[in-house]
Amino acid sequence: MEPVFTYTITDKAARYEQFITDFLPYITDEHEEVSVLANTTAALRQAFGWFWIGFYLVRDGQLILGPFQGDVACYRIRHARGVCGTAWAEATTQVVPDVEQFPGHIACSGSSRSEIVVPLISKGEVRAVLDIDSEELATFDEVDRDYLERLCGEISSRIYMQ
Ligand code: SME
């Protein structure tokens, strides 16, 4: 397959629009959770180049490390702990402009300065979270929240059908 997720578009919203348009066909016919999440991290990495992009999956009352792109990371996160555990517990996106200001932030890498975590929700239950880390402060804002929530909604509806 040709790599299609390299863009010269500088406007962030326009880049997300193009990315979502290009990426959705890649997840139309595949419903296997790990496979779809793995390709999602690869495509996001190519399109946006963030430092760390990955999923944590809800398993037996905790979050476990799922498919990701970037440095090795923590295996398990407890409910309501860190940014990921908070996104899970509250079932809402967490936008963190400075990780040092987030109480209980879990530092898998000392290079992470800002972060966004988006829950994947199916039938009212969080099934996984998308975690993206940046080496710069205040990388993520409402534009990222809107588009990443849209993307996670599309993914959830395909891989968590039952
Ligand atoms: N910072 C996250 C932990 C996961 S790593 O960033 C990959 C947190 O506080 O939940």
Which short descriptors sum up this protein?
single chain, 162 residues, alpha+beta, 6-stranded antiparallel beta sheet, 4 helices, 6 strands, binds methionine sulfoxide
Question: What is shown here, in short?
Answer:
The chain has 162 residues and is α+β, with helices and mostly antiparallel strands. It has helices at residues 12-23, 33-48, 82-90, 142-159, and strands spanning 52-59, 62-69, 76-78, 94-96, 114-122, 125-134.
Q: H/E series, N to C?
A: HHEEEHEEEH
Q: Kindly estimate the percentage of residues that lie in beta strands according to DSSP.
A: 25-35%
Instruction: Estimate the helix proportion, in percent.
Output: 25-40%
Strands side by side in the biggest sheet: 3-2-1-6-5-4
Structural class: alpha+beta
User: How would a textbook summarize the main sheet?
Assistant: 6 strands, antiparallel
Task: Specify the number of helices.
Answer: 4
Small molecules in complex: methionine sulfoxide
Distance between the termini: 30 Å
Number of strands: 6
Q: What value does the Rg take, in angstroms? A: 15 Å
Mean pLDDT: 95
Query: What's the overall geometry?
Result: globular
Unreliable spans: none
Provide a descriptive summary of the structure in words:
- It contains four helices and six strands, in the order H-H-E-E-E-H-E-E-E-H.
- It has 162 residues and is an alpha+beta fold.
- A six-stranded antiparallel sheet has the order 3-2-1-6-5-4, with helices on both faces.
